Structures
1.
Amino acid sequence: MASNPALFQSPTLTEALDLLAAIPGARPLSGGASLVAMMNAGLVEPAALVSLTRIPELRGIRVTADGGVIIGAATRHNEIAADPRLCGTAAVLPHAAAQIAGMAVRNMGTIGGAIAHADPGLDFPPALAAAGAVVELASAAARRRVPIREFFVDWYATVLTPGEIVIAVHLPKPKPGVGLYLKHARVSGDFAIVSVAVSLARDGEAHVAVGGCGPVPLASAEADGIVSSDLSASALAHAGDLLTALANPVDDVRATADYRRLLIPRMLARALNDCMAASRSVA
Ligand SMILES: Cc1cc2nc3c(=O)[nH]c(=O)nc-3n(C[C@H](O)[C@H](O)[C@H](O)COP(=O)(O)OP(=O)(O)OC[C@H]3O[C@@H](n4cnc5c(N)ncnc54)[C@H](O)[C@@H]3O)c2cc1C
């Protein structure tokens, strides 16, 4: 049986990054919601664990001078679900966070851990794609920023390199409008079979993304362009077809690939119609 790896509780970001650079096979630990389960199942055997949860720089949500929002990587799902500053078009994020698993997982899991884990059924990836997020990464050597639509590269794979971690998610200034996350799952709190994230600004700008239908969230500038200029039934159907063409779903215990493909245009149309109805009710 594998022995327990050494656990380092880093008080500063610099120390955590130095440890990850110095110990081959060391992994960052956030809430442990997924990593500890994978270790218990024998799927991963880290040489050491470097906990990120006590690093003040990685905690909490801040609004910048230009109105943008920075969410620290170690911010818990429940904090995101309850933050009133994530409003208007950015409301897609708390709406998605509130639908993740149950209360225990939402109190443990972090946004940085979730996107680094990159399970295709997760709720944050499509929500962040619709919100126009940019991910900030750091290693002992450098920092860089990557648009969320380029962050996920394959099944459980991201652009993160060894020793590099997610330190924050940056959102543009929320616009007046609506953000909505529609999740279809077997039961409340299960991973998504298909999910659709929408941000619809009052000025007409719209961004859409689909989860659960391939290794990375489905999103395209062309689909965004269509729903930004025309919200008729035929335009929504066209955007739905474009996103379905990008899908690469699998058959699994939750649903077949064909069923997932069938849901994409239907759920997209429903999500955008719900957004339009919500816009009318707040106007
Ligand atoms: C029972 C259960 C049900 C769930 N249901 C859902 C659901 O319905 N929807 C949903 O979206 N999610 C769901 N999740 C996943 C949940 O959202 C977790 O928060 C998420 O997987 C990450 O957990 P964590 O933040 O604790 O990261 P950890 O478990 O600590 O880490 C996960 C992975 O990311 C790495 N990592 C952690 N932090 C960072 C970082 N800052 N930078 C780089 N790498 C990092 C770790 O090394 C590890 O490989 C569920 C999890 C469980 C256990």
Note: The chain is about 35% helix and 20% strand.
2.
Amino acid sequence: MKRNKTKSVKVGNLILGGNDRVYIQSMTNTKTANVEETVKQIHRLEKAGCELVRVAVFNMQDAKVLSEIKKQIKIPLIADIHFDYKLALESIKQGVDKIRLNPGNINDIDKVKLIVDACKEKGIPIRVGVNSGSMKDDLPPTAENMILTAKYHINILESLDFRDIVLSLKATDIATMIEAYELASKTFPYPLHLGVTEAGPAFSGSIKSAIGIGLLLHKGIGNTIRVSLTDTPEVEIKAAKEILKNFNLISNYPNLISCPTCGRIQYDMTSIIKELETYLDTVNKNITIAVMGCPVNGPGEAKHADIGVAGGKDYSLIFKKGKVVDKVNNKDIFKTLKKMIEEF
Ligand code: SF4
């Protein structure tokens, strides 16, 4: 899938934009000043596949521990600043890799200049994070007004000769969000961070995000993504990987396909799927596994899978690339698949 070309922006050891990679971002929900808990959560996120992590800098205690956090993690660290330019300055001093500003909340150009000068000195970018909830001059949150708001703030940064910019235009309304990003990709040369803001709990929020982010990725738009969910950040990473997988924008991530089951099923397929899904969360391989409810159509329906099972009453057929290679007792299905996946 062809991706829109944007300016390249360096964030830590990653280059956003200018290439085909779409990076996965998440945000911690610990109190940032609690270094131990925050670092523990970031380590879990790194393990899950998070590539950039953002922490809320709510007060000076949060800002002052950022270098300590950065020392203990591998992925780029982003400071999320809302109201206070001093928190931005301290975060930059602490060595973060990027600053996210909610521009609606830091309007004073002199203060923005101080932040820009500090970012220039350290060579770090700023994400202008426009939200439908914080529009310039309280304009109604339409896509056009989100672009106007972004333009206003980007013009300030550009007038200060600063172009290490990443832009996001998050809205809770999917249609507005899609339109805003489409307009942004035609208007600005900067990498775009995609997200549906306040998407909701895991199930509905993942669907909402998959629609919004997915439609944009399909058009070649987007350089980083965050699936914002009211759940643990690890769940956000899982949802993000699922979205990227469907556009072939992620490698080394397994694909689990399974039939919806019907009256022909004669074994407990649901518990095998659950066990397999949990196990696959730990697997970093490009592999497609198919779990089918019966041997009637199973191997044929899933002939593009690398490994699969077509369940029977007591015994099930195991297949590779659509060809039956074994017949196992149903109690051994998971064990057999796990071994085959390990050897793949
Ligand atoms: S694979 Fe078998 S059980 Fe599953 S939906 Fe098809 S016919 Fe039904």
Note: Residues 259-262, 264-265, 292-294, 296-298, 301 surround iron/sulfur cluster (CB under 6 Å).
